[in-house]
Amino acid sequence: MVRPGGNLTGLAILDAELSAKRLEVLKEVIPRLSNGAVLWNAANPANTVSWKETANAARVLAVTLQSYEVRNVNDFEGAFARIAQQPPDFLYVLQNALMLEGSRACL
Questions:
Q1: DSSP string spanning 16-78?
Q2: CA distance 15 to 4
Q3: Cα(17)–Cα(66) distance, rounded to whole angstroms?
Q4: CA–CA dist 76, 42 (Å, integer)
Q5: What DSSP state is assigned to residue 96?
Q6: pTM of the predicted model, to two decimals?
Q7: Per-residue pLDDT of the chain (107 residues; tens, 9 = 90+)
Q8: Residue 105 in contact with residue 73, Cβ under 8 Å?
Q9: Please, which contacts does 60-64 make with residues 24 or more away whose CB atoms are closer than 8 Å?
Q10: Are 72 and 98 in contact (CB under 8 A)?
Q11: CA atoms in the 13 A half-sphere facing the CB of 77
Q12: Distant-in-sequence, close-in-space partners of 71: CB < 8 Å, separation ≥ 6
């Protein structure tokens, strides 16, 4: 950035920061939200950070979150069955490759 015209390489993953912000925006759009479900890959360290940031944001926004952890494609059916037992106001999915694979498996 100091030397315009040069090459810049690298990768930035801001999912943890954006995850909390997405919850804030959702609460602004639908203020009555109070109960949410978060589906996330507990085997992914980046998702663990995102879950913690999302949970912290939820406390500030007075939103109760229930964590639904999956670790492989076989966990989705059980997670959705548990979610259906106590339907939340919203379902928030922390994104990663397992979620994409699992969504295809559930269709």
A1: HHHHHHHHHHHHHHSTT--EEEEEEETT-HHHHHHHHHHHHHHHHHT-EEEEEEESSGGGHHH
A2: 28
A3: 19
A4: 12
A5: S
A6: 0.79
A7: 556 666 666 555 556 678 888 889 999 999 999 999 999 999 999 899 989 999 999 999 999 999 999 999 999 999 999 999 999 999 999 988 888 777 665 55
A8: yes
A9: 61/23, 61/24, 61/27, 62/34, 63/23, 63/27, 63/33, 63/34, 63/35, 63/36, 64/34, 64/35, 64/36
A10: yes
A11: 4
A12: 41, 42, 43, 98
For the chain, the first-to-last Cα distance in angstroms comes to 45
Q: How far apart are CA 33 and CA 24, in angstroms?
A: 11
Q: Give the integer Cα–Cα distance in Å for 50 and 94.
A: 7
Phi, psi of 73 (to 5 degrees): -60, -30
